[in-house]
């Protein structure tokens, strides 16, 4: 019981910190998107935990997490998909750089293969999250970061493409996971898709 709780607790802290950092880098107010971000963070990490149990699928978790971040920023923060991809990738890379520096500075002697299931791994996640949240606060406080006219890069009928991609992702994931009989992962994807479709449809209605 402790292992799943530990994993979800520290991984959610890590994911929320990365989400806050990626928004702050592009001077997007984090406070407005805390609850959708928290909900999606829980789903991302629940997915990661389930996929970690399947050795053949664990390598897919980071890629799927990045895709979920892109969809979250597109549908909830309402940033065009091209910029959402840039924000998600830059934010994830920045968080990874911070974590790597902390890893080689304070956890150099730790076997990295055991980090996902060890106390040291949780300590690394907590330390990185504290630093990332500190950087986030600093960027927002002093209004430092990149600014851009996001709407300039919005494709025509983009929201239709996003909805189609979300539905396609659910179908593809369902087929892939069903072959391994991972019903919990299918349920997770359904929740994620439901959230994205809600915001995507609401976004389209707000525009008219």
Evaluate the radius of gyration. 17 Å
Largest sheet properties: none
Number of strand segments: 0
**How would you sum up the global shape?**
globular
Strand content: under 5%
- Structural class call reads mainly alpha
Helix content: over 70%
H/E element order:
HHHHHHH
Mean pLDDT reading: 77
How many helices?
7
Which spans have pLDDT < 50 for at least 5 consecutive residues?
A: none
State the separation between the terminal residues, measured CA to CA: 48 Å
Walk me through the topology.
Elements: H1 2-25, H2 34-52, H3 61-75, H4 81-106, H5 119-141, H6 158-179, H7 183-206
Short characterization:
The protein has 208 residues and is mostly helical. The chain contains seven helices and no strands.
What does this protein structure show overall?
The chain has 208 residues and is mainly alpha-helical. It is built from 7 helices and no strands. The chain has helices spanning 2-25, 34-52, 61-75, 81-106, 119-141, 158-179, 183-206. α3 (61-75) runs parallel beside α7 (183-206), α4 (81-106) crosses α5 and α6 (158-179) runs antiparallel to α7.
Q: Which labels suit this protein?
A:
208 residues; mainly alpha; 74% helix; globular
């Amino acid at each position: 019981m402790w292992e799943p709780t530990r994993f979800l607790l520290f991984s959610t802290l890590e994911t929320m910190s990365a989400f806050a950092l990626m928004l702050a880098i592009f001077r997007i107010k984090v406070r407005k998107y805390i609850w959708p971000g928290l909900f999606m963070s829980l789903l991302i990490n629940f997915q990661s935990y389930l996929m970690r149990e399947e050795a053949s699928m664990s390598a897919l978790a980071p890629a799927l997490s990045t895709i979920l971040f892109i969809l979250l920023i597109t549908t909830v923060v309402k940033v065009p998909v091209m910029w959402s991809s840039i924000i998600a990738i830059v934010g994830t890379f920045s968080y990874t750089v911070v974590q790597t520096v902390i890893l080689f500075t304070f956890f150099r002697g730790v076997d990295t293969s055991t980090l996902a299931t060890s106390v040291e791994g949780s300590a690394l996640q907590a330390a990185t999250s504290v630093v990332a949240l500190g950087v986030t606060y600093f960027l927002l406080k002093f209004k430092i970061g990149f600014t851009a006219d996001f709407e300039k890069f919005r494709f025509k009928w983009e929201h239709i493409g996003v909805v189609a991609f979300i539905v396609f992702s659910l179908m593809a994931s369902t087929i892939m996971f069903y072959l391994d009989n991972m019903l919990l992962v299918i349920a997770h994807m359904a929740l994620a898709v439901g959230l994205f479709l809600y915001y995507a449809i609401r976004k389209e209605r707000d525009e008219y």
